[in-house]
Specification:
The complex is a heterotrimer of chains A (269), B (388) and C (401).
Chain A (H helix, E strand, L loop, with lengths): L1 E6 L1 E3 L4 E4 L4 E4 L4 E3 L1 H14 L5 E6 L8 H9 L3 E6 L8 H16 L4 E5 L10 H9 L3 E11 L2 E7 L14 E7 L2 E5 L11 H9 L5 E4 H4 L30 H16 L1
Parallel strand pairs in A: 1-6, 1-8, 6-7, 7-13, 8-12, 9-12
Antiparallel strand pairs in A: 2-5, 3-4, 9-10, 10-11
Helix pairs in contact in A: 2-5, 3-4
Chain B lengths: L6 H28 L4 H10 L16 H13 L3 H21 L2 H12 L5 E4 L15 E5 L2 E12 L6 E7 L10 E7 L5 E6 L10 E12 L3 E2 L5 H37 L1 E2 L2 E2 L4 H29 L5 H26 L1 H4 L5 H8 L9 H14 L8
Parallel strand pairs in B: 1-4
Antiparallel strand pairs in B: 2-3, 3-7, 4-5, 5-8, 6-7, 9-10
Chain C lengths: L6 H28 L4 H9 L18 H14 L1 H21 L2 H12 L4 E5 L15 E2 L25 E11 L4 E10 L2 E8 L5 E6 L10 E11 L4 E2 L5 H37 L1 E2 L2 E2 L4 H30 L4 H26 L9 H11 L7 H14 L8
Parallel strand pairs in C: 1-4
Antiparallel strand pairs in C: 2-3, 3-7, 4-5, 5-8, 6-7, 9-10
Classes of the chains: A alpha/beta (269), B alpha+beta (388), C alpha+beta (401).
Chain lengths: 269, 388, 401
């Protein structure tokens, strides 16, 4: 069985301080960590792999030719292969729409992939587009925001959380439901659903010492230059008109009520 | 000169820091309060392979070298001195003595399980009348057929009360002294006659075990002689030198913690209408602390590099221990003062670090002995030999 | 200048040593490990008159001069710094404040039971946001300041015009020394015009003693959080003139500074004795370690600091007896006393080596206890500000902390 996990990096929130008084963000420590939801997806993949002969392959969420640290982390905890995309054309960052095309091409090149796992949302942008877009390009079924993932034969079972407004319909009021989907499928994993295991220390040392531990595929071997053009063009910013400040009424209750009543009559006309 | 850590050491530090914050720190206050060793932490460290961090992978270790070991001690020392002490005694003097002096057979049989964390190690030397004067030990090892019979009492031993494999120094020839009369033995704790005596009631590092060990006619096969007969003491000096370096690394971690907590308190605590950070006396304290920590950091990792590149390091390792313990003591004392009443309270971690730090100037060779070692190394190069 | 003790002071010293050896030394270690206050010792001390050490005979005090009192504190501290601090809080901080500032009625009411040991005193000044910055305290008193008497007119209303409403204290005090064992609290609160001081009995409704702080050292002393929730007070509770609370607190802490330094002297002294004995007996490398020059150096330096502190303390005590002594003098003696106490116990612990780290040996407890002295009673940094204030005042520069 072949499982692909898509992993990205994000600035470590522990190194960021928000100063509300000054309305500023200070980056104390510019260090990157694996996207928390992607780490959960990786753990899900490794748990499926535990005790079976499944193969786990790590691919990157974005184009960072000079930084394969997240992929090395994946190898350290037990992934079998990791591939980074190198070469650059046009203007990064590429956005999830473009990355979906690149990843789809990479997955076709890998061949015979059964399951793709990635995080449901990213910590910095809060977006959950990559999984669904990738599923769309590949034409595969998708499950988003799964809490648990289990492979049974030729399909995958996922435990999903049902938001309160929908609980009446599905499952009769239960907060969780089990969704089954035939392989090959894309599943995105809820952040915090699982805790990524610690790496094996010797494996970690060896992975980081081996320059060639992560394979490198050239992006333009996978997709054409047109395919790398961004899907969105930013034209400008527009804000709603500033609201008038509210008026605070002070005084004894009897007086305030009089003023309030007359103001309301004025505004309603 | 390249002062950057390699990528694998940076990745290693990140792993250990995460482990320290998630697994070690949450237990630190509890193990001090209850006076217990965190066996669950040792288990987890073992699973990852950290209990063999510096040993080659062929013996079940991680292969991260002395630099890797210093990183481990620094990051553990930053959150819990007790845990760092227990781990240091296991890796740095227990397993290390077998790594440096053992034959292939002994390394396969004993070092590998120690490196994998499947067994815990200790090194047993000190006795009631032999502290700084370690060569004055009296525990006897008498040859009997193809074994040795060990008899004697050891005091102030770390890890000995629960270790599986202990390296013991005993006297094989009372007529010779340190040179020729003392031999090292590998003893398994389930060998008949090996007993644990009193557990000491210490001021600090209460989450580590310090106990008396009694050898009552323990029969040890001759295959368990570590190194050559009569050369145990001299060989042990090498192990001890390495232990001094890594104790310096643990002190670095503690001093860094003192600095970090002091900065945090100084920038939040307000008195006299402003944060303490605006008081010049506090600024001076922080600046001096930070300078000493940086100096210690450079010293420790430079000596670790010297070890990893095969250079002589005895004098420098003694400096790491001497300077490290004094910097850590000074840093935590100042941190306590900055925290005022909160620093005295057992509900907060500063006073625990204060009690824990004090032992560093005493064990693994008192700072007085370190100074003798350093002075001896300096004068010997000019032909003057110093007696302790 | 006569540096000798009088015959009477020599006699007192012998008596104090006898008492401490019999009553304090045997249980000090055990009480520390159990974190129990030394109630038995206090009872015995009361019988000797020690709990009213400096109080006049008319209040059943022993009428000791401050020098003799410091000799007592120094002696007790050799065996237990906890006992010394408990006593000093009771006598110097609370009882002597009542003696100095109380009305005759207040002195009659509170001092005899305090001298008899029936009522221990506790000092409630510190708050979570008012540590060094004492003036920032937030406990509030609603007791109005009495109106001035009117010449030839109607007498002022006895309750200051409260019209039947009661005045109360509201707030939280932390690090109240002797909190759990006290019968009487000296509480400082913001009044209508400045800080006021109040004497509040422990059983007053609205006063409750809460959490006991577990500490690094002085583990036989109780440091508690005290809650004042609508604690009723009247003029009878006020100590001293209205608005003079901070002055009362400062004077109390100044005279206590001398006694705490005497306690520091005691703990340092006992540490040197213990270390010297150990060094004389411990043989390593074929000789007692006393023969090693480094050890000699540690002991010699400790003894030098001890002697310098001794004369600093007793001169300050003499200044108290003369009714002299500027804030500067008290700050110098407190800062130095704390520094020497910690420095000496630290060095002497090193002389004992591994044994110094074991709680079963005499140095560990003394080391932990001594460390507290540079924080309680006004931290060293604050003392340094006051010393600098005095120095620079002579050059017309005003220093604000």
């Amino acid at each position: 069985m072949k499982i692909v996990v898509i992993l990205g990096r994000v600035l470590d929130p522990a190194g960021i301080v928000v100063n509300r008084r000054r309305g500023r963000i200070f980056v104390n420590r510019e260090e990157y960590v694996m996207q928390p939801a992607d780490a959960c997806a990786l753990e899900a993949a490794l748990q499926i792999k535990d005790g079976s002969d499944a193969e786990v392959i790590a691919l990157p969420r974005g184009l960072l030719p000079d930084d394969d640290d997240v992929l090395r982390q994946a190898l350290s905890v037990g992934a079998d292969r990791a591939v980074n995309f190198v070469g650059r054309i046009g203007n990064p960052p590429y956005g999830d729409g473009v990355m979906a095309r690149v990843l789809a091409a990479a997955i076709e090149r890998l061949g015979e992939t059964d399951l793709i796992l990635t995080g449901a949302t990213t910590l910095d942008t809060g977006q959950g587009q990559l999984g669904p877009r990738l599923a769309g390009v590949l034409g595969w079924p998708q499950v988003v925001d799964a809490w648990a993932v289990r492979v049974a034969g030729d399909h995958v079972e996922t435990v999903c959380h049902i938001p309160p407004p929908l609980r009446g319909g599905l499952g009769g009021g239960n907060p969780y439901t089990i969704l089954e989907v035939d392989l090959s499928a894309v599943v995105t994993v809820h952040p915090g659903a699982l805790k990524l295991r610690y790496p094996d220390g010797a494996r970690l040392i060896n992975v980081y010492r081996d320059e060639k531990a992560v394979e490198a595929w050239v992006v333009t071997d996978l997709v054409s230059e047109e395919a790398l053009q961004p899907l969105l063009e930013k034209r400008g910013r527009d804000f709603p008109p500033e609201r008038e400040r509210s008026v605070r009424l002070e005084g004894a209750p009897q007086e305030v009520v009089q003023v309030l009543a007359s103001e309301l009559r004025k505004r309603v006309g | 000169m390249d002062f950057a850590f390699s990528t694998e050491h940076r990745a290693l530090r990140r792993l250990i820091r995460e482990f320290a914050e998630n697994e070690v720190e949450p237990l630190a206050a509890e193990i001090d309060r209850e006076g217990r060793v965190p066996f669950e932490t040792l288990g987890k460290l073992g699973q990852i392979g950290l209990l063999g961090v510096c040993f080659p992978q062929e013996y079940g270790g991680m292969g991260a070298g002395e630099i890797g070991y210093c990183i481990l001690m620094e990051e553990l020392g930053r959150v819990c001195t007790s845990t760092a002490t227990t781990v240091g005694a296991h890796i740095g003097i227990g397993a290390m003595s077998i790594y440096l002096d053992g034959n292939e057979e002994q390394k396969r049989k004993y070092l590998t399980p120690l490196a994998r964390g499947e067994k815990i190690g200790a090194f047993v030397l000190t006795e009631a009348n032999a502290g700084s004067d370690a060569a004055a030990i009296r525990t006897r090892a008498v040859r009997e057929g193809d074994s040795y019979i060990l008899d004697g009492t050891k005091t102030f031993n770390t890890n000995g009360s629960f270790a599986d494999i202990v390296t013991v120094l005993a006297v094989t020839d009372p007529t010779l002294g340190a040179r020729g009369g003392i031999t090292a033995f590998i003893v398994e704790s389930d060998m008949p006659g090996f007993q644990v005596g009193t557990h000491e009631n210490k001021m600090g590092i209460r989450g580590s075990s310090t106990a008396e060990l009694i050898f009552e006619e323990v029969r040890v096969p001759q295959e368990n002689v570590l190194g050559n007969v009569g050369e145990g003491f001299v060989s042990f000096m090498k192990t001890l030198d390495l232990g001094r370096l890594t104790l310096g690394a643990a002190c670095l971690g503690g001093a860094q913690a003192a600095l970090d907590w002091s900065v945090r308190w100084a920038r939040t605590r307000r008195q006299f209408g402003e944060e303490l950070a605006h008081k010049q006396s506090v600024q001076w304290m922080i600046a001096d602390m930070a300078t000493q920590v940086e100096a210690l950091r450079s010293l420790v990792y430079r000596v670790a590099w010297m070890v990893d590149t095969g250079q002589p390091f005895t004098q420098m390792a003694a400096m790491c221990k001497l300077y490290g313990s004094e910097v850590a003591s000074r840093a935590i004392d100042v941190a306590l003062q900055i925290h005022g009443g909160l620093g005295l309270s057992r509900d907060f971690l500063i006073e625990r670090f204060f009690r824990d730090a004090r032992i560093a100037e005493i064990f693994e060779g008192t700072n007085e002995i370190q100074r003798i070692v350093i002075a001896n190394n300096i004068f010997r190069r000019h032909g003057v030999r110093i007696r302790p | 200048m006569d540096f000798t003790l009088s015959e009477e002071q020599e006699m007192f010293l012998a008596m104090f040593r006898d008492f401490s050896a019999k009553e304090v030394a045997p249980n000090a270690e055990e009480l520390d490990h159990a974190e129990q206050p030394p109630l038995g010792v206090l009872r015995k001390a009361a019988q000797q008159g020690f709990l009213g050490a400096t109080l006049p005979e008319q209040y059943f005090g022993a009428e000791l001069d401050y020098v003799s009192y410091c000799l007592l504190v120094e002696t007790l501290a050799q065996d237990s710094l906890s006992v010394a601090v408990t006593l000093v809080t009771h006598v110097s901080l609370v009882a002597m404040s009542i003696l100095a500032r109380g009305t005759d009625a207040q002195r009659e009411e509170w001092l005899p039971p305090m001298a008899a040991g029936e009522m221990m005193g506790a000092f409630a000044l510190t708050e979570p946001d008012a540590g060094s910055d004492v003036a920032a305290l937030q406990t509030r008193s609603t007791l109005p300041h009495p109106l001035p008497a009117r010449e030839g007119g109607l007498p002022s209303p006895p309750d200051g015009g409260l019209e039947g409403g009661a005045a109360a204290l509201n707030g939280v005090k932390t690090w109240v020394t002797n909190g759990e064992i006290a019968g009487l609290f000296l509480v400082f609160a913001q009044g209508p015009e400045g800080v006021d001081a109040f004497l509040v009995p422990a059983d007053a409704p609205g006063l409750s003693v809460g959490y006991r702080e577990p500490t690094l050292g002085l583990r036989s002393v109780t440091f508690n959080t005290v809650y004042l929730e609508g604690c009723r007070i009247s003029e009878a509770n006020r100590l001293g003139e209205p608005g003079t609370g901070l002055t009362i607190a400062q004077r109390a802490q100044d005279r206590t500074a001398v006694a705490l330094a005497a306690a520091g002297l005691g703990v340092a002294e006992a540490s040197i004795d213990a270390a010297a004995q150990f060094a004389a007996e411990r043989v390593q490398f074929g000789v007692p370690i006393a023969q090693k020059q480094a050890i000699q150096g540690y002991v010699a330096e400790a003894v030098t600091e001890l002697e310098a502190l001794r004369y600093l303390v007793y001169r300050a005590a003499w200044l108290v007896d003369q009714g002299q002594g500027a804030p500067f003098d008290f700050s110098v003696v407190k800062a130095h006393g704390a520094r020497v106490a910690y420095g000496v116990t630290n060095r002497m612990l090193q002389v004992l080596g591994g044994y110094g780290y074991m709680e079963d040996y005499p140095l560990a407890r003394r080391y932990r206890d001594a460390r507290v002295l540079s924080i309680i009673g006004g931290p060293t940094e604050l003392q340094q500000v006051r010393i600098a204030q005095k120095v620079f005042a002579e050059w017309d520069v005003e220093i604000v902390p």
